[in-house]
Amino acid sequence: MQIITSGIRLVPEAVLANDAALFRTIPETPSHADRSLHRVVIVGGGAGGLELATRLGRKFGKRRLSVTLVDRNRTHIWKPLLHEVASGALNMSNDAVEYIAHASRHHYRYRIGEVVGIDRTKRQVFVAPSFDKDGRQIIPPRVLGYDTLVLAVGSVSNDFGTPGAARHAIALDTADQAARFNNRMIDACLRANAQYEQLSPGQLHCVIVGAGATGVELAAELHKSMREIASHNLDNIDFERLIRITIVEAGPRILPALPEHLARASARLLVDLGVQIRCGTKVTEVTGDGVRLGEKLFVPAELVVWSAGVKAPDFLKKLDGLETDHINRLLVNATLQARGDENVFAIGDCASCVLPGEDNPLPPRAQTAHQQADHLVKVVAARLEGRAAPTFRYRDYGSLVSLADYGSFGNLIGGLRIEGPLARLMYRSLYKLHRKAVHGTWKTALDTIAGILARRTKPRIKLH
Question: Are 334 and 410 found together in one domain?
Answer without folding.
Answer: no
